[in-house]
Amino acid sequence: MQNLRVAVDVGGTFTDICIMDETTGLIRVEKTSSSVDPIDGIMSGVERAGIDLEKVALFSHGTTVATNALITRRLPRTAMVSTKGFRDVIEIRRANKEDLWDTYKDVVPPYVPRRDRLVVSERVDAQGDIVTPLNEEEAREVARILKRRKVAAVAVCFMNAFMNGENERRMKEILMEVMPGVPVSTSSEVLPEIFEHERFSTTVANAALSPVVVDYTSRLGKRLAADGYQRDLLLLHTGGGVMTPKSVEDFAARLAGSGIAAGAIASKYIAELCGFKNSIGLDMGGTSTDVSLAYDGQSRVTKDWFIEFGYPIRFSSIEVLTIGAGGGSLAWTDEAGSLRNGPQSAGANPGPACYGKGNRQPTNTDANVVLGRLGTSLAGGKITLDASLAETAVKEGVAEAFGLGLHEAADAIIRVANANMSDAVRLISISRGYDPRDFALVAFGGAGALHGAAIARELSIPAVIVPPNPGVTSALGCLLVDMQHDFSESYLKAAADADPAAIEAAFLRLEKEALDRLAHEGVAKKDVVLQRSIDMMYLGQWRSLAVAAPSGMTEIASLVEAFHREHEREYNFRRDETPVSLFRINLKAIGVVPKATLARHEPTGIVPEPKTRRTVWFDGERGLDTPVYERESLPAGFVLAGPAIVEQLDSTVVIPPETRAEVDQYLNIIIRIEGEKNV
Is the CB of residue 611 less than 8 Å from the CB of residue 375? Predict the structure, then answer.
């Protein structure tokens, strides 16, 4: 009987495995050390968790393989073929810099060096008419050269191919004829959109990653099958859905940033279980914090993202803001004498000072130990923290430098860290037109629950949700997704000149392509959900907003009014008298995957006793006698008033004074911040 669902999230230090029983809805977790080859870590974790792969109905995986390949530049030799005169588009970029004022910091070089960017004669005009057919003699000579150079992948990027990809398709045919077995990505298939740099950059990344991820997914699929798994391996992509290894062959770059999307998906799902349609995810680990937002049950999606600055990947992605704030972030003093926190990190080795591995500089973990918020035993006793080393680091690194008491100094470290994370939440909420007071904060990751309540109070967020297993919540996200693909087609028209019939015809073309692809992946038509949208902008602008479009387009006026409303929400103004332009037609195709529901627990009426008590400092000099509970002992329906500490294998929850916490039917801890309105 296939009744298990398994999700695996591979991180730099640990591989997290989440196992759900479809029959009972119960979840258990396993952690194992990540390995040089991620597949070895995955299979080791599966064995350690005692998973019988013959009983697994679904195996979902969030991977960092594509992300790491781009960051480390461990990529196979990739070539680019472009229209004559345009091979330097990906090196000229937008001629901007990540740090405008740093004269000496150069943008990293493109993924394809100039010597491997070859050109051919061809030209398509802006209306999609072929002005110059592909010169096939030149095309065959290019293919011969690339074969001799033994390139492993090719990106074909022609001017205006987003309007007509015929020349690109012919170039691909010639390359595949001369170089059989070498993957070829064309910009008209990968990203049929205007803006050459973004289209070329995405296509190059897609081509370069194809051999890497295809090899990885193929090897993992074979290892799983050899041990009894009988279904398709499902891979989480940045858009918040999953794809099969077959789709990865054509859209490898969709796996870049795969890992961070899982946490955003899980936080939205958990918030909805708790009755909150608006939520902000705070995923705080050892080195960084990922912040995401969901409004009215929908995650924010962006196309403006990259792994390395200057080389955008324009596939739809759940918007996640990452900052250098984690348990290992270092406290330091800048040249002006101000206390700073991160982005420098002690990492896993040597780690915080309290690890006893030689680091003497204070970290957030050390400050939490000094304040009594963290105990001296973590991960079920596997890690012992030395409180005296933490105190020495805080005293020498901050207290003496600023003339503060020990606990005041530790509190200052935490306040600066919380301020950094609060600023990140403001960027993804207030700067986007969302009021944090209308949201719940989902705090997870190894350190999120230590800081969640303080950040919520800083931003007037009324509720904090801590999932049952905060440290492996991202792995849970891999179990909560559907098959998903995004399709688009350029449509450059003023709204006044737009033809509803032509737009409807374009949507129908995209829907046919979507249905064919999902059918190829084994999704029944009854399980397909199609969501339409149109990117629109005020005339003269180039940044657009997506507006939901109806099925069966008959008029444009309602779309224009919806755009004005969305623009006012996003930017706090609207210009009804300004003409509106249509930019792009989008279709999101979802193949619904049946999901098991999490187990519900009835209140027992049992009032657990704290396992111990210790002094915990809040607000610097206020040391309070505080009960410490074990998370496993807290039943559904249990209510406790702060201050309190809740410890578990993968995290520690801080419930400050003047807050009230309750354990809901799914064993989430919901902390209510007193004085804030209830959402």
Answer: no
Residue 541 amino acid letter: Q
The position carrying tokens 């559904």 is 636
Contact 289, 319 (CB under 8 A): no
Amino acid at 577: E
| CA–CA gap between residue 487 and residue 528 (Å, rounded) | 14
As a three-state string, the secondary structure of 422-458 is HHHHHHHCHHHCCCHHHCEEEEECCCHHHHHHHHHHH
Per DSSP, helices labelled H in 227-377 are: 245-248, 258-273, 364-370
Residue 382 has pLDDT above 70, yes or no: no
| DSSP helix/strand/coil, 382 | coil
CA 393, distance to chain mean position in Å, is 34
Radius of gyration (C-alpha) of the chain in whole angstroms: 26
CA distance 20 to 2: 12
Neighbouring residues of 315: CB distance < 8 A, sequence distance ≥ 6? 191, 202, 237, 238, 239, 251, 253, 254, 303, 486
Q: Which two tokens stand for residue 615?
A: 């002094």
- State both tokens at 128: 């999609």
For residue 661 the two structure tokens come to 């916490």
Residue 528: beta bridge partners?
591
Cα separation of the two ends of the chain:
42
Q: How far apart (Å, rounded) are the C-alpha atoms in residues 471 and 650?
A: 5
607 token code pair: 């009032």
pLDDT category of residue 182 using cuts at 50, 70 and 90: very high
Phi, psi of 451 (to 5 degrees): -115, -15
Place of tokens 């000099």: 621
What angle (nearest 5°) sits at the alpha carbon of residue 63, between those of residues 61 and 67?
160
Burial grade of 177 (CB within 10 A; 0-12, 13-18, 19 or more):
exposed
Give the pair of three-digit tokens for residue 367: 């400050």
Long-range pairs, 14-17, Cβ under 8 A, ≥24: 15/41, 15/42, 15/44, 15/45, 16/471, 16/472, 16/474, 16/475, 17/42, 17/45, 17/46, 17/49, 17/51, 17/472, 17/475
- pTM recorded for the entire structure: 0.80
pLDDT tens digits for range 481-518 = 788 888 888 888 899 999 999 999 999 999 999 998 88
Task: Please give the average per-residue pLDDT across 444-456, as a whole number.
Answer: 92
Determine contact, residues 668/476, Cβ cutoff 8 Å. Answer: no
Give the length of the chain: 679
Helix (H) or strand (E) holding 616: strand 612-618
In the prediction, which pLDDT does 207 show? 96
Single-letter amino acid code for the residue at 578: T
- Residue-wise pLDDT for 353-380, tens only, equals 998 988 999 999 999 999 999 988 776 6
Instruction: Residue 675: count other Cβ atoms within 10 Å of its Cβ.
Output: 10
For residue 389, what is the DSSP state?
Answer: H
Question: Is the Cα torsion angle 243, 248, 253, 257 positive or negative in sign?
Answer: positive
> Given a cut of 70, is residue 348 above it in pLDDT?
no
Which tokens belong to 606?
């049992």
Question: Over the stretch 238-286, which tens digit does the pLDDT of each residue have?
Answer: 888 888 888 888 889 988 877 778 889 889 999 999 999 999 999 988 7
Alpha helix locations (H) across 58-104? 65-72, 89-92
pLDDT at 391 > cutoff 90: yes
Starting at the earlier edge strand, list the strands of the sheet with 612-618.
Answer: 612-618, 622-630, 644-648, 651-655
Give the separation between CA 151 and CA 112, rounded to whole angstroms. Answer: 11
190, 252 contact by CB (below 8 A): no
Residues 6+ away with beta carbon under 8 Å from 537: 543, 544, 545, 580, 581, 583
Cα 440 to Cα 289, 435, 522, 615, distances in angstroms? 17, 11, 37, 29
**Amino acid found at 449:** A
